[in-house]
Design goal:
Blueprint: H1 44-73, E1 74-83, E2 88-96, H2 98-125, H3 129-134, E3 136-140, H4 149-163, H5 168-171, H6 182-187, E4 189-193
Antiparallel strand pairs: 1-2, 3-4
Helix pairs in contact: 1-2, 2-4
């Protein structure tokens, strides 16, 4: 129900408690004056370079922990074959020690946490460290705003579609007019130079 004297419901008036109503950046209508030319699209090589930088940032610490975990935590595998009346079975002992397993799990957790953080950065600023280094940014095509964490996460899931037809979606930006992957087309996002 609307009240005629309620200042929070009149356009251009302060909201609740006298504070002006504002929407957080990246949500709602495009900012005033948007509609100018779209910045130049990022090239496929820039996108690949950014992905490689991000992959190294995530992969190197995790890989070091994996290697150390397997190096110090491996026990000699000892397998014996047990012969029964009508069957054979193999029994093995050894594997990873507790310390080795802990380091491998820690490496996996670090990779997972960094991946989530990069999705958060991409959703809130449009850039991961790799994108920032290579001078590119992910934005919505409709209004030029960033996606937000939720849609950035959905975009990562949609990259499964890029991998399905023999990784064709990852190569699509090479010849596409807007340099979009299939995931970009699904979510109407573009990667531009900044």
């Amino acid at each position: 129900m609307s009240y005629p004297n309620d200042p929070s419901q009149q356009p251009g008036q302060p909201g609740y408690g006298g504070y002006p109503q504002q929407q957080p950046p990246g949500y709602g209508y495009p900012p005033p004056g948007y509609g100018g030319p779209t910045p130049p699209y990022a090239s496929w090589l820039q996108r690949v370079g950014a992905a490689l930088v991000d992959g190294l940032i995530i992969g190197v610490p995790s890989g070091i922990l994996y290697i150390i975990g397997f190096a110090i935590g491996s026990k000699d595998m000892d397998c014996t074959t047990v012969e029964g009346d009508y069957s054979y079975s193999t029994e093995c002992s050894g594997g990873l020690t507790g310390a080795g397993l802990a380091l491998v799990i820690l490496g996996g957790l670090i990779a997972f946490a960094l991946s989530l953080y990069f999705i958060y950065m991409e959703g809130t600023t449009g850039q991961t460290p790799g994108k920032k280094i290579l001078g590119i940014k992910l934005i919505r095509e409709a209004d030029g705003q960033v996606l937000g964490f939720g849609m950035a996460f959905v975009r990562r899931i949609c990259h499964i579609v890029d991998s399905l037809p023999c990784y064709l979606g990852w190569l699509w930006p090479i010849w596409d007019a807007k340099k979009q992957t299939f995931a970009d087309k699904i979510l109407s996002t573009i990667v531009v130079k900044v």
